[in-house]
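Field: COMPLEX_INPUT
Field: COMPONENT_COUNT = two
Field: RESIDUE_TOTAL = 486
Field: MODE = joint
Values follow.
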Amino acid sequence: MVRTAAALIIGNELLTGKIQEANLRVLALALRSLGIELRRASMVLDDVETIAEEVQKLASSHDVVFTSGGVGPTHDDVTVEAVAKAFGVAVVQNEPIAAMLRAHFQERCTEGHLRMALVPEGAELVRNSEIPWPCVVMRNVWLLPGVPEAFRAKMPLLRERLEGGRPFVTRSVYTQMDEGELKPLLDRVVESHPSVEVGSYPKWRDPSYKTKLTFDGQDGEAVEDAMRAFVELLPKGEPQRIE
Amino acid sequence: MVRTAAALIIGNELLTGKIQEANLRVLALALRSLGIELRRASMVLDDVETIAEEVQKLASSHDVVFTSGGVGPTHDDVTVEAVAKAFGVAVVQNEPIAAMLRAHFQERCTEGHLRMALVPEGAELVRNSEIPWPCVVMRNVWLLPGVPEAFRAKMPLLRERLEGGRPFVTRSVYTQMDEGELKPLLDRVVESHPSVEVGSYPKWRDPSYKTKLTFDGQDGEAVEDAMRAFVELLPKGEPQRIE
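Field: COMPLEX_OUTPUT
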């Protein structure tokens, strides 16, 4: 069973602020519904050594790792090389992928295009009838594309392949109280409901509420209990709403 | 001179996909304009041990580190405790901050509110006449708030305090060519302009271009040269536009 996951987000364009990262949340929500806990994300530059080191560290401390980005054919796409390095294997051309590229580009197919057929030696191709372009999976590391539409398109493959635990559930309570006032009430609920993760999020400039409280866990009944216990501690007129 | 930076983004709400991370890009852009390279970002859960370990690692390998989140008064706000632990110091109440809190909340001021006056021992308060609520800075680690409006409001303090290098500049070229076709042209420019960082970003479903090429560096003339050298290699009808 897959319990813990990490994400490795790769790309200079993110750390230079050129674009807003958009894949992590998609992955986080997919994993929640699979009952897999995303424990950490790292964002690094397009550098083989840095990526290889990070892959090694994350893959040895989590059940599954997802990389995002760096899988195209240009000089700044170094994820395949880095993952191969992390596992001490060579980079080889995958024949089924090369054949797909040749069929797609026909006489326009260049060396550049064929670079997209390179995989770490021993990698597995994951695909299905609706997603013919494969995902490269090296041991417990999934190499996902950085382009958000392409990243999102791979999520059904995760759902098909990974067996997690019970899906996580969340309840949310909105109040007009501030965190200083809420703290003693929250402490009581946190102490009496150890299996439920309680979050507190102040919001600025929203007239409808001041603080949002969240109750999360894999045991839906415990989550519901914790939420109810908290609501009972609130003064008259609260909460503003429950979701 | 401050050359390298890392970000530590803290919060269960991000790794569970409840909200979209919004501070990293704001920080990245502020640092670019200061000539400071953001080399890495880590995103972790609200766990003291994990945060302390990460702070230690990032602070010892970068000139400056920015944390985002976990500085409120509730049980899930553990950044101050973790930073103190990372530097092996105690958590103490800062009198100037406690006085500000008492003045603000008056007779409503609780123990919970006063938790926001806790700082790692030896921390410095950074503020100016327009930003009276201070930023807590422990050695080379800035503790920034997670709420996006509050995070953004602190950026002028970075500009005032940190002396970086020359600001980074970027030029962008948009083409209808795909990355496989572009690769040999890019390789020539990358080789002949080692001080310029060249990026290649395919775009799906945008009729106006297929691939965006970026040229980045602190030497504006070199960036311009690399961009021009690339444009001269393009076939007739390209590029679509230059920015």
